[in-house]
């Protein structure tokens, strides 16, 4: 077994390899009898120089560029996400007065912990009426806690 040079990538590979381990180029069929006739008395040599090209293997030809561009490949999740965003944009939830609705979780949390969650009502789209209820509830709880007997 000797090291030979791959005709495609010019890297060293085994002479017994069926294909190049670096680029995958197929190697030519070598006669098995030559290896058997050499016998065990002759030692294998290692070659570090370049060898001539293997004429039994056809040369690779360059393919001319395609006139039309290849389609973009995107993961399925990206297409699904784009369709979901388009569907959400079409069905925008808006109250009759044009303000955004207060979500259920926000209603519950403003009732239970108004000191923290009432600030979410300051986001764009909430009406003055919604903010008045939220901050009014906060003010009422602050007033009730300050008037309680100690």
Automatic annotation (TrEMBL):
This is Zinc ribbon domain-containing protein. Keywords: Membrane, Transmembrane, Transmembrane helix. It comes from the Bacteria. The chain crosses the membrane at residues 104-122, 131-148. It comes from Pseudomonas monsensis.
């Amino acid at each position: 077994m000797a090291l030979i040079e791959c005709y495609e990538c010019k890297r060293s590979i085994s002479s017994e390899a069926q294909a190049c381990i670096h680029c995958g180029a197929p190697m030519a069929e070598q006669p098995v009898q030559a290896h058997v006739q050499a016998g065990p008395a002759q030692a294998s040599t290692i070659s570090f120089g370049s060898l001539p090209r293997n004429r039994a293997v056809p040369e690779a030809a360059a393919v001319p560029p395609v006139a039309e561009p290849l389609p973009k490949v995107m993961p399925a999740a990206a297409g699904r996400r784009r369709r979901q965003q388009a569907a959400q944009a079409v069905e925008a939830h808006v109250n009759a007065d044009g303000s955004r609705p207060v979500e259920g979780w926000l209603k519950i949390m403003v009732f239970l912990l108004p000191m923290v969650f009432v600030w979410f009502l300051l986001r764009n789209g909430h009406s003055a009426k919604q903010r008045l209820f939220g901050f009014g509830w906060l003010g009422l709880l602050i007033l009730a806690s300050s008037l309680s007997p100690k």
